[in-house]
Design a protein that fits this description.
The complex is a heterodimer of chains A (about 140) and B (about 240). Chain A has about 140 residues and is of the alpha+beta class. Chain A has 2 domains: about 1-70 and about 125-135, hypothetical protein PF0899 fold, CATH 3.30.2320.50; about 70-125, no CATH class. Chain A has helices at about 1-20, 40-50, 85-90, 95-100, 105-110, and strands at about 25-35, 65-70, 70-75, 80, 120-125, 130-135. Chain A has a 3-stranded mixed beta sheet, covered by helices on one side. A 3-stranded antiparallel beta sheet of chain A has the order 4-3-5, with no helix packed on it. In chain A, strand 3 and strand 4 form a beta hairpin. The two termini of chain A are about 35 Å apart. With about 240 residues, chain B is an alpha/beta fold. Chain B has one domain (about 5-235): Rossmann fold (3-Layer(aba) Sandwich). Classes of the chains: A alpha+beta (about 140), B alpha/beta (about 240). At the A-B interface, helix 1, helix 5 and strand 6 of A face helix 1, helix 4 and helix 5 of B.
């Protein structure tokens, strides 16, 4: 349940932002989930809904909207771009699980599929981001 | 919006003291001092955590002999307990492979580790810092606001040159400085002591070069009996942790 810790960060950030904006109720929280982090969406949503119950300002039931962001990795050496899903099949479970916990270890366990360089960049789809919140003042 | 920064304070709130073992220079024995410090405090009955933040070259796991261990998943990740120390390191996720990280990746890894690690109640969290005043040092200062610094140098003028820069910035930022430990000494020169005192920083003492230390690496029971441990204990007695 590593997802729980990330859900907790989303809920705390949403409440912090809502307090700053003087919202009385949070009606929508849109979350972008980077493909690289390989979040179990059901567990993540369950955690969000459990954590939601004790917040002030309150977060409405079904407020969470999850959007997956496809990954883009770009090689600094040859300019190649690719998606994590294209290489995931070739990874062993341990390496894939490590990337789930710390997405940056993708630089440790994978290489550019075209030139073999470890010098590439996660241009899109790294991890969990709070995209927007909506609420009532 | 970056959500992870919002949860860090909560993750650290049950930690009484955070001590970053740092140096401006590499190779001065930070990991050795950090590991010994963690073992020393654990042996005294304190609840201790050790976070290896040397992401390119983690080595505390080698010093403590950590093998075939992995954090437990429970509303985040719970570090395994090694010889009484809750031990967290990037090595659980990188194994012994090379880690080619750029600056932004370093900051992301630190944020992730701080956001997902469930330390529980600790009396001390010791951080083994990488050398210099780069991303890791700045991130520890930014996200771990209550951290105190224990600075390590060797008797070398070369090491002191870089250590002086670290001390200057910590003083400028008004960070609590526990003092400076002089590691791997081979004579009774007072040069480092005088230079440290000139900066109005507490000089904690010497850790003599220990020819037999290598034989104790990987074995915490032996580490507890090293000359390094005895000298460090004496140095720490001057500040009463």
């Amino acid at each position: 349940m590593h997802e729980w810790a990330l859900a907790e960060s989303i809920v705390m950030a949403a409440v912090e932002e809502a307090t700053k904006e003087k919202l009385k109720t949070i009606t929508q929280v849109t979350i972008s989930i980077g493909e690289l982090q390989q979040i179990e969406k059901e567990i993540f949503l369950f955690a969000l809904n459990e954590l939601r119950k004790s917040q002030k300002p309150p977060i409405k039931k079904d407020a969470f909207v999850l959007r997956t962001e496809k990954s883009t990795l770009t090689c600094h050496t040859c300019g190649n771009t690719w998606k994590f899903t294209e290489m995931k099949k070739k990874l062993n479970i341990t390496d894939s699980e490590s990337i789930h916990f710390i997405p940056e270890v993708v630089f440790v366990h994978t290489r550019c599929p075209r030139c073999g360089s470890p010098d590439f960049e996660i241009t899109k789809g790294r991890g969990v981001i709070l995209s927007s919140i909506k609420g009532v003042r | 919006m970056e959500p992870r920064t919002s949860v860090i304070e909560k993750r650290l709130k049950n930690i009484h003291r955070i001590i970053a073992v740092a140096s401006g220079k590499g190779g001065v024995g930070k990991s050795m001092v950090a590991s010994h410090l963690a073992l020393h405090l654990a042996q005294q009955g304190h609840r201790v955590g050790l976070l290896d933040l040397d992401l390119y070259g983690p080595s505390c796991h080698i010093i403590l002999g950590v093998k075939h261990q992995f954090p437990t998943e429970e509303k985040g990740i719970i570090p395994p307990v090694i010889h009484g120390i809750s031990f967290m390191s990037i090595v659980y996720f990188t194994e012994e492979k090379p880690s080619p990280f750029r600056g932004i990746d370093i900051s992301n890894i630190i944020l992730e580790l701080l956001a997902i690690t469930q330390w529980g109640h600790l009396d001390f969290l010791i951080i083994d810092m990488p050398p210099g005043i780069g991303d890791e040092t700045l991130d520890v200062i930014r996200y771990m606001k209550n951290s105190e610094f224990l600075v390590v140098t060797t008797p070398s003028k070369v090491a002191l040159g870089a250590v002086r820069k670290l001390l200057s910035i910590l003083i400028e930022l008004k960070k609590p400085l526990l003092g400076v430990v002089e590691n791997m000494t081979m004579n009774d020169s007072a040069f480092i002591e005088q230079e440290v005192q000139r900066l109005q920083v507490k000089y904690l003492g010497k850790i003599h070069f220990d020819h037999t230390l290598e034989e104790s690496i990987g074995n915490p029971d032996l580490l507890l009996k090293t000359q390094v441990m005895k000298d460090l204990g004496r140095a720490l007695a001057t500040i009463q942790l």
